[in-house]
Amino acid sequence: MDKHTIGIGGQQIAYAQTEGTGPAIIFVHGNSASAGTWDRVMAGPIGQQHHCLALDLPGHGDSPPAADRADYSLPGYAAVVAGFARETGAEDAVIVGWSLGGHIVIEAAPALPSAAGFVIFGTPPVASAAQMGEAFLPNPAMNVGFTSDVTPQAALDYASSFTAAGSPLPPDRFVPDILRTDGTAREALFESIGQGRFADELAIVTALDRPLAILHGAGEQLVSLDYLRGLTLPSLWRGEVQVIEGAGHAPHQETPAAFAALLAGFIADLA
Question: 2-266, superfamily in CATH?
Answer without folding.
Answer: Alpha/Beta hydrolase fold, catalytic domain (3.40.50.1820)
